Amino acid sequence: MHIQNDIEGMTLALEWAARAMTSTAPNPRVGCVLVREGAVIGAGHTQPPGQAHAEIAALRDAAARGHAVRGATAYVTLEPCNHFGRTPPCSDALVAAGLGRVVAAIEDPNPLVAGQGMAKLAAHGIDTRVGVLAEQAYELNIGFFSRMRRGLPWVRMKTAASLDGGTALHNGMSQWITGAEARADGHAWRARAGVILTGIGTVKADDPQMTVRGVASVRPPQRVIVDSRLDIALDARILAGPPCWIVAARADPARADALRSAGHEVLLLPNADGKVDLPALMRELGRREINEVHVEAGSKLNGSLIREGCVDELLVYLAPCLLGTAQGMFALGPYDALEQRQQLVFHQVQQIGADLRILARLTAQ
Predict the structure, then answer these.
(1) pTM of the predicted structure, to 2 decimals
(2) Residue 160 — φ and ψ, nearest 5°?
(3) Is 135 a catalytic residue?
């Protein structure tokens, strides 16, 4: 492959970054491509935490191929780090390698970096450029940017419905409204998240596993259950496998001890109304280095999360069918004036199999 310009170089680096979609959390997904005279001489992406960052992976790849990197150009989808974390600074490695030019898609939002990585490169005589395909790089790591800038994960709420907004028949039947392609796509969105969050209502009604199926995931998402009164049954399928985090509002020592004995964590986060303090939960998830939260819950918890300002984006699959009188997506309202409505912005609309996938963002974000 011959790279003719910075756009082509960064496009390839973004493709490499996407390969790390499910494996780098809490670190960002980063790709790096090394180019000399238009030829790709090395490439790599961020490895799981504690292992090589993208720049180091690309340098090692070039060495393994027998290529000298001195004077080459590096295309990297996020500014090289400039601090000691789980690994040494990548900016130091690029300086030591003698690169001639480094092009970064976007500045690192981490205050420990925030421009300092590129500044170090420039101070050592390396030509630098920032801002090539920045929007695409931001979208790839939208949760990391959210956590660094707000201390909060990016919260994406998934739901599947008929064209008239029904998520289940009046009697609760819901399998399957959307097709196999949409369901597989939904698992890909699960896989990229750090947390899959649901509520006790969904656990009781559907007894789901809330696991990722059909998608390779190095680090399966942590499952979180909002259960104000600790009503969950110990034999619920979601409690099988890796431990869950159960978030409650009322202390029930006996039930909490039973859950903890089974390996699960119980968090008490009550609000003034005796329910789970949802904004406090999101802050706690941010403190636990969760970048993206994937919500799959019922209409009540969905409505509560939206009302309390905890949702950034809706991931809605609409099937080409009508369910008539049915259960809805969000328990909101009733509103007395249109001004009270929750305004959204369509971010992306795409057909997946026979269904429509809509990404819609809350306008406050």
Answers:
(1) 0.93
(2) -125, 135
(3) no
